[in-house]
Amino acid sequence: MKFSWKNLLLWSLPIIVISFFLWQGIFAPIANENKTNLTNSRMTYGRFLEYIEMGWVKKVDIYDNGHTAIIEAIGPEIGNRMQKIRVELPASAPELITKLKKNHIDLDARPTKNNTALWSLLGNLFFPLLLVTSLTLLFRRSKNSTGGPGQAMSFGKSKALFQIEAKTGIIFDDVAGIDEAKEEFEEIVTFLKKPEYFTAVGAKIPKGVLLIGPPGTGKTLLAKAIAGEANVPFFSISGSEFVEMFVGVGASRVRDLFKKAKENAPCIIFIDEIDAVGRQRGTGIGGGNDEREQTLNQLLTEMDGFEGNTGIIVVAATNRADILDSALLRPGRFDRQVNVDIPDFKGRLNILNVHSKNKKIDANVSLSIIARRTPGFSGADLANLLNEAAILTARERKNQITLKEIDKAIDRIIAGMEGTALIDSKSKRLIAYHEIGHAIVGTLLKDHENVQKVTLIPRGQARGLTWFTPSEDQSLISRSQIKARIMGALGGRAAEEIVFGESEITTGASNDLQQVTSMARQMVTRFGMSTIGPMSLENEDSNPFLGRGMGNNNEYSDEIAIKVDTQIKLIVDECHKRTRDIIKSNRVIIDKLVDLLIEKETIDGNEFANIITQYTKIPHKI
Predict the structure, then answer these.
(1) Are residues 358 and 309 in the same domain?
(2) Domain-embedded: residue 397
(3) Is the residue at 385 inside a domain?
(4) Burial code of 343-376, b = ≥16 C-beta within 10 A, e = fewer?
(5) pLDDT score at 98
(6) Of 303, 318, 339, which one is at a domain's C-terminal end?
(7) Within this chain, do residues 377 and 280 fall inside the same structural domain, yes or no?
(8) Do 248 and 367 reside in the same domain of the chain?
């Protein structure tokens, strides 16, 4: 570690404090110990008087203002030889001096050397002075190193990362899969570079742009690309860095940030995770946080203080736009809201092309196939996918990433790490029937997604898995599709019931039943897909400032609640009956598929569909 006086003082302060207490508790009492500890031999006062009467005492030295005496005596108890013995004297013993004089014993009174004042001065003044001196040196060192009032007094300053030339190393070409958002920001970059194109027709630069989207979709990456393209001063800060334990610090940092921005205009201010400071005011069980609200108020004031074309653009990112304060979202503050969504097939392919540039991928690997197999993956997920595949390739000492490593990486990201293979047993066969039950029902239902893979290789907490390929468009789902998903989820439990009997069903379907209940409830209470009618009885978004489940108070009567429960049960019972019928009608093919699955442990989706087409006499989809 590099030597510095600051580090030396930081390590010395605890040692100084500990030394002070050790001095007061241990060394000072030892230093003040009187010189009466000249001997270890002791004698009672009564025995001392008897020694005087016998004439065995030759000399007496008195210490501690008459409380202790050291005598020189000879007696049979001490071997008839001269020894020094310590005697504790009573507080009042006037006859003692008379007896000593009567027996002509040499008497001497020794004054006590008072060192208490000296040691008190050292203990009470020296160490505090040393501590104050050390703190003073530390403060001066901090002041000289920062050029300001020191770190201890600079907590009100902005912690924004400031770059005069925004050398982020990222441009728009490095951002893929979010073309619509890129178009919005290309216009802003043009305004920063050539504002006269817009001001000539009376256009004003937008004051703020809010990026909204799920985690991992590239919001922060896009902000860095804006700075890299515009080549203007770039301030980057997280919303959580505004608020600390000190009152007024957040508002002070906002003022300082915008002061620096105005000095370096035109520029970009990027606030990541703005929901940490910009959430709704006056909410929550215990009311709002005053410090956070003052910080938000200052941010609103600063954004209102911009003049028409100052050249300052505030870019913020959040994945919780529903909790942001309405005053923050109004026109004049964040003029534009840009949605950064999960990429589609084309976007995923472009993202894979970007992240595969520095990867050694086998020529036989098609990125388009990977893109089709990963619907719902964000940009961060796809980058992690290729990185996991590269790690697996290096672990197996290969030179190039093949489709095998990519398949393993996809499985690991979706379901977790691969576990120990199951041994042949009744449990393995039961799990095989459970997974084949899911797969056969999903394959035979025309409104269900196709089977991608069935495996008995444990991953994470699951002992077996059945994967379905989700459709590209998940925005609109029909009633028949939801019921098909309910039946697919019930396929495992139905297979256990038909093959092993009601008494042998297991807990393996617990997660499936939770999904079934949730989907059936949403059909009744949110989507109006029941005999109750087209009514939305529950909101999708619960109160974000209350605990989970605390804000879900029913807004309907008990009579409607009974009807809701009845409709949910009717939907689940109907789907369960149809699922059992499918399992019963295809018992022969299910047994063959189970034997094949136990033998191979994994069956691909295409192979699974071909086997069903080959053996079953019913239509492929029902």
Answers:
(1) no
(2) yes
(3) yes
(4) beeebbbbbbebbbeeeebeeebebeebbebbbe
(5) 78
(6) 339
(7) no
(8) no
pLDDT in tens, 127-175: 677 667 766 766 665 545 444 444 444 544 555 555 555 555 677 777 7
Mean pLDDT across the stretch 427-454?
90
Three-state secondary structure call for residue 401: strand
Label residue 248 by pLDDT band (50, 70, 90).
low
Q: Are residues 411 and 329 in the same domain?
A: no
| Of 273, 306, 339, the domain-final residue | 339
197: enclosing H helix or E strand: helix 196-199
Residue 281: name the closest of 327, 241, 248 by CA. Answer: 327
- Contact assessment for residue 310 and residue 182, using Cβ atoms and an 8 Å cutoff: no
Task: Give whole-number Cα distances, 267 to 228, 257, 335, 430, in Å.
Answer: 12, 12, 17, 64
Nearest to 75 by CA among 112, 120, 43, 30: 43
Say whether pTM exceeds 0.90: no
Q: Supply the angle between the helices 379-395 and 345-355 in degrees, to the nearest 10.
A: 50
| 581 domain residue, yes or no | yes
At position 205, the amino acid (one-letter code) is I
Segment 11-70, tens digit of pLDDT: 555 666 566 555 555 544 544 444 444 556 788 878 888 888 888 888 888 877 777 888
Residue 329 sits in the same domain as residue 442? no
Cβ count within 10 A of residue 170: 19
Q: What total number of domains does the chain contain?
A: 5
Short-list 29, 195, 214, 7, CA closest to 115: 29
The number of CA neighbours under 13 Å toward the Cβ of 538 is: 18
**What's 128's DSSP letter?**
H
CATH label of the domain that carries residue 482: 1.20.58.760
Strand partners, 337: 210
Considering only CA atoms, which of 230, 211, 235 is closest in space to residue 172?
230
Cα–Cα distance, 429 to 601 (Å, whole number): 11
From 229, 273, 293, 435, active-site residue = 435
Q: 87 and 135 in contact (C-beta within 8 Å)?
A: no
> What is the C-alpha separation between 529 and 150, in angstroms, rounded?
65
Q: How far apart are CA 134 and CA 121, in angstroms?
A: 19
405 is catalytic: no
**Lowest-pLDDT choice from 6-15, 381-390, 435-444, 595-604:** 6-15
Q: Do residues 404 and 533 share a domain? A: no
DSSP E strands: which ranges in 40-150?
Answer: 42-43, 57-63, 68-73, 83-88, 106-109
Same domain, 95 and 142: no
- The reply to whether 294 and 189 lie within a common domain is yes
Strands annotated E in 156-266 = 161-163, 208-212, 234-238
Helix axes 558-585, 510-525, angle to 10 degrees: 130
Q: What range defines the domain where residue 100 resides?
A: 42-109
* Tokens matching residue 602: 């994994």
Under DSSP, the state recorded for 234 is E
